[in-house]
Each structure stands twice: as C-alpha cells, then as structure tokens.
Design goal:
The chain has 315 residues and is mainly α. It folds into 2 domains: 51 residues; 240 residues, Orthogonal Bundle (MetI-like fold). The chain has 14 helices and no strands. The longest helix has 33 residues. The chain is globular, with a radius of gyration of 26 Å.
C-alpha cells in the first residue's frame, strides 16, 4: 500500500507531533502551511494601509519627525477635494486612461484576430509583437526619449518626412499639445501585446463547432463575428480593460522617464502629483489623505466593473 503524504510527514516528525498531525483534517493541515504566507501578505499590505489612514487625519511631516503631531480630522481630505490643481491632474489621468485603453483594446484585439488565423510564420510574428512588454519601463522610457529628440530622434524625422515639415521645429515631449500623446503612444506600444494575448486566449477558447453550426445555417462571416466572436471574447476584453485600467491609473515610471510631468504640468498624472506632495513638499498627512482618496476611487470603480464583468460571464 502506498503511504499517504500525511504518513510520510508523520514519520519525519517527532512522535508527539506525529500523533497530532494524524488527528488533523486535510483542511487544517492546509491552513498550517498557508497561514504563514497569508499572515505575511496581510502584514505587508494591511499595516501600511492602516498607517496611511491614521496619518491622513494628522498634520504629520516626515521631514519633521520631532515636531508635535496634531489631529486635524477631515481637513486634509477637504483640502485635497477642493484643490483645483489636483482636479487638473485627475483630468490628465482620465484623458491618458481613456486614450490608452481605447487604442490598446482596438489594436490588441485586431492583432489577436489576425494571429488567430493560422498562417506561415505565425509563432515568429507573435514573439516579435510580444517583445515590448518584456522590457523594463525605465528602458522603454529612455529608448523613446531618444526617439523623440528633435535633433536626432528618428520619430521626429519620420513625422517630418510624412508631413513635409522640419523635424527640428517641433518635439513630441516638448510641446504642450503633443506631450500627452507622446506617452499614450509609448504605453500603447509597450502594453498592446498584453491585451493581444488575453484576446488571443479568448478567441482560441471558442469551439470550432459553433462556427461550423453557423455556417450550416448560412450565417455570413460578418454575422458570425458579431454574434459569436464578439460576445464570447467580451469577458476577456473586459478583463484586459480592468488590468490595464488599474495599471494606467497608477502610471508613474514611464511618464517620469519621458516627460517628468511636463512641459509645465500637462502630463502630471495623479501618481506624480502624489509623489511631489509626499517627497518634495513633505506634506505627509496631506499626501496620505490624497492616497486614501485615490485608493477608494480605484477600489470603488474596480468593484463596480467586476460586478458588470460577472454579469457578462453569466450570460
């Protein structure tokens, strides 16, 4: 008879401990192994959140640790919500979020739809398309910064050649009207492959028998696309939007590498503005309230979106 994992564990432990293990259920043993990891995750995630909430009700400044800390109630929250500059950064973040999501979903789904069609070199093209998402955001930021340079940037020369203008007369990251689109282009280039892979998984999960039945009913390719492909891939599309929406809401490193929030504050997203409040102005209590508001916003929107996603899956 084969020994069970519990028997082997019992023989490898002292007799007293072995008797205790034999008397435990599988669920109890599973909790014994999982509990340390859960405790560590809670300590790493929950404690900073509780500490941040506590600081948000005070005037604490981390650069003045010996100063008297006063309880200010909701003053920090009111200051954040009535600050016009913060609403401008929220607006910039919303524009960045919407533009990147629309482009990444459209391009990502289109690429997935094309790659799902079997053709020669399919695997090679898939690997090439996925390469950008394998790079570090810092590397991508530095790489595209050189491409956007007015004097030596290949991107500016390409745009100048297509539009018939002098490439040194404009700069994607130096022009207030072009800088937001500069970071949208880079983020789309880097993360469209991620959306493509999720959409590709959805397309390949559709049974061929459904398309065969539709062809027997003489449904056109266009009708098959709208009545079979889109409805069955929609949960995967919504999942990709959820992941990319959360990531882009807290976008920081790529924008810092490209524009630093400039020119002026046209590309200053909420994450960059929060960093300046916390680590340049050293308004720790104020920044903590700011962070809590952002957390509640993302958590609330994500919860509503997940409920909508679950309804789509149940159809």
């Amino acid at each position: 008879m084969l020994d069970t994992s519990i028997d082997r564990a019992a023989r490898a432990t002292p007799p007293a401990v072995a008797r205790r293990i034999r008397g435990l259920s599988d669920r109890a043993i599973a909790w014994i192994f999982v509990a340390p990891s859960i405790f560590l995750l809670l300590a790493v995630n929950i404690f900073p959140l509780i500490w941040t909430i506590r600081l948000s009700f005070t005037n604490f400044r981390v650069n003045r640790p010996n100063a008297e800390v006063e309880f200010v109630g909701l003053k920090n929250y009111i200051s954040v919500l009535t600050n016009g500059d913060i609403w401008l950064t929220m607006q910039a973040t919303a524009h960045f979020l919407i533009a990147t999501l629309v482009l990444q979903v459209l391009i990502g789904f289109s690429l997935a739809y094309l790659i799902n069609k079997k053709f020669r070199g399919n695997d090679l093209w898939t690997t090439i398309i996925v390469l950008p998402m394998m790079l570090s955001p810092a590397v991508v930021g530095n790489f595209w910064t050189f491409l956007y340079q007015p004097q030596i940037g290949l991107f500016n020369y390409a745009v100048g050649f297509l539009t018939g203008t002098d490439p040194s007369s404009f700069s994607m990251i130096g022009d207030a009207s072009l800088a937001p689109w500069a970071i949208v282009i880079v983020d789309t280039w880097m993360w469209t492959p991620f959306v493509m892979l999720i959409c590709l998984a959805g397309l390949r999960s559709i049974p061929n028998s459904i398309y065969e039945a539709a062809e027997c009913d003489r449904a056109s390719k266009w009708r098959q696309f709208w009545t079979i492909t889109i409805p069955m891939v929609l949960p995967f599309l919504m999942l990709a939007i959820l992941f990319r929406g959360i990531e882009n809401f807290k976008m920081f490193d790529l924008v810092v590498q490209l524009t630093g929030g400039g020119p002026g504050s046209i590309t200053e997203l909420t994450s960059i503005n929060l960093k300046r409040e916390a680590f340049e102005k050293w308004r720790t209590g104020y920044a903590s309230a700011y962070a809590v508001i952002l957390f509640v916003t993302v958590f609330g929107l994500a919860s509503i979106y997940v409920k909508a996603l679950n309804k789509v899956k149940q159809r």
